[in-house]
Here is the input.
Amino acid sequence: MSARAARRRAVNLLFVAGCGIATLVALAALAMILWSLVTQGIGGIDLKIFTMTQPAPGSVGGLANAIMGSLLMCAGAMLIAVVIGILAGTWLAEYGGDTAYGQVVRFLNDVLLSAPSILVGLFVYELLVRPFHGFSGYAGAVALALLAMPIVTRTTEDILRLQPHSLREAGMALGASRAFVIRRVIWRAAGAGLLTGVLLGFARISGETAPLLFTSLGNQFFSMDMSQPMASLPTTIFQFALSAYDDWRRLAWVGALLIAAAVLFINIVGRMLARETHRP
Amino acid sequence: MRAACRQRVDLMTSYVQVKALKPVQGRAGETIFRTLCLASATLLLAALAGVVISLAIGGWPAFRTFGFGFLMSSEWNPVTEVYGAAGPIVGTLITSFLALAFALPLAMGVAVFLTEFCPRAFARPIAIAVELLAGIPSIVYGMWGLFVLAPWFATHVQLPLLMSAESGSWQDKLFAGVPNGANIFTASVILATMILPYMAAVFRELFLTVPPQVREAAYGLGCTSFEAVRAVIVPYVRKGLAGVIMLGLGRALGETMAVTFIIGNAHGFPDSLFSSGSTIASTIANEFTEATGEMHTAALIALGLVLFLITFGVLAIARLLLGRQRP
Here is the structure.
């Protein structure tokens, strides 16, 4: 073997080893995060977490108010985001996606998709909190909806574009109007895929903290009134983690574990659904 | 309605049961549906426009009062009501680029390893794990940074470095700071861990778009794996790579919670690698609900507008580079 070949081999070996080490480092870092999450959080999970509201420092309590607030606001947000997102995605895929306006909408939707969530919080503060003189669960839901909308729009468009043209032609040939074909044929064929988009959007917003800080604010009591300030898991975690009390910090870990587990679970379900639809 | 339907059905062969296909909606329904779809798409535009406009209006008092100095001054003082955004802006840029510098080689390594070298049996599970980890909320990363990374970093890295540095030397200047682990360096590390799985996942998708023939041609010419990656695969997707890097940067710039936990929240320019600092997003998150006056709120919103313009620029470039390819 010539010296040149030996050098090429050595460089190649180094490169392969480097890539392998990079993967190990990345996986180790992420495993460490999950590990501390589980070890710190799992001990605190019991029934009290789900039945009792947040405690004063030093007394017993749970996260029921935060969990309820998160569920309500996320549900409200998804209600808005699903309607708007699916309709907008349908427009991009079926009607105006190739027009200049469609291009602009798609481009800005992609930008909105990764825009800083804290700015959405500021926007909703200016839009709903300041004019109505109060933080509220509704404002939180709207902020979350604005974050989920681009995701639902994008996946809807992608999934609808995957549907075969023959489906549309068959529907039209039977005399159905375009809207009818979209609603009764295309949406139905893309059903699981649409659901994936909705789940991905849901997974994204369920851990969002920044936009809730100035919209729903937080609430130490159990409340289901969305016109009032409302607790949520992420903001409660934020407050508790930065506090000086050990029991609050423990609750913060439990909350973080709950959120991470929920997000992972939703993502996995969405992924499984997507796998079924992507294979024609 | 019926007539319109019949007209369309004319084209069809006679044995199709026209009755069974009674159209549920006619022209009116079609128009309504189409308009609803268009309105929803427009609402998305309106949302983005709303963000810009509300930030511009809300931040206007600060821009009017401080003018260009708002961007240049690093004085941030709620008591005297003087606000300058330079500290958080610089903090944002430093942490984001440091994070990118840490995450980029690792993410590339992971993606190359998964697409080129990893045995197939492991590649898929690892890829899925990486993608799932990209979805973990940033607050979890922030907590880990605060409770695990910061204390460890303070005792095992920061203190020894501080002790070993001679006073007055460049190391002393570089490593100066309160040894509590909450500083711009650890914030960058957390940011890097956050964008790492995200970037690795999209890099991998990008590498998978390289046609196998191209790869095989490279190997057929006698390339080693390294040469194939460097001379064929990376050039094939270079535009996309640049786009993904910008996406990662955009994420790091706007990230709030992971940074807020650990950056130490000090205004002004960071004067060493281990000094506490602030980013635009962390400043807003920390101070907005406790803003002392109209001008304080306005200054924070103006900061938001600055962040929006920076990220919008970065993300727009990313999307243009990625084109129709949409990871």
Summary: Residues 203 and 266 of chain A are 6 Å apart (CA to CA).
